[in-house]
Design brief:
The protein is mainly beta and 123 residues long. The protein has one domain. The chain has 1 helix and 11 strands, in the order αβββββββββββ. The protein starts with 6 loop residues before the first helix and ends with a strand. The relative contact order is 0.24.
C-alpha cells in the first residue's frame, strides 16, 4: 500500500521547500539531466504559497535572456546561482509540466519566459 499524506502534511512539506529556497533562490531551466543550464530566473521572497498540496511559485510570468542554446526539458531549484539543490527533476514544457515556458527551443541571447511554476505533492 502506498503512503498517503493528509493535505495539512503535504502543505507543511511544501512550505519547508519555500523556507529552504530562502531569499536568494533561483529556478534553473536546462537540457535533459540538467547537462546544460539554458537560463535561470530568481524567485520572489517568499518564493511561493501552498494550498491543497500544491506549491505555486510567485511572481510569474518572468522573462529573462538565455545564456545557452538547447531544448528545455528539465529544471531545478537552487539556493542561488551555483548554489545547493533544493528540488531537482522538475519537468519543463509549454503545457502540462511543473515549469511552463513560452518555448522549449532556446538559442543564446533569446528572450525566454517562464509563464508559471508549481510543485504538486504526490499522494
Amino acid at each position: 500500500m502506498a503512503v498517503v499524506y493528509p493535505t495539512a502534511v503535504k502543505n507543511a512539506r511544501l512550505d519547508a521547500v519555500v523556507t529552504q529556497i530562502g531569499t536568494t533562490g533561483v529556478l534553473e531551466v536546462g537540457t535533459t539531466g540538467m547537462a546544460s543550464v539554458l537560463f535561470s530566473v530568481p524567485f520572489d521572497n517568499p518564493a511561493g504559497t501552498t494550498s491543497g498540496g500544491v506549491l505555486t511559485f510567485s511572481g510569474f510570468p518572468k522573462t529573462t535572456t538565455a545564456s545557452a542554446a538547447g531544448t528545455a526539458t528539465a529544471a531545478r531549484i537552487r539556493t542561488g546561482t551555483g548554489g545547493t539543490d533544493i528540488v531537482t527533476g522538475l519537468t519543463v514544457g509549454t503545457s502540462a509540466s511543473d515549469v511552463i515556458v513560452n518555448t522549449t527551443t532556446v538559442a543564446i541571447s533569446d528572450p525566454v519566459q517562464v509563464t508559471s511554476a508549481t510543485i504538486t505533492h504526490a499522494a
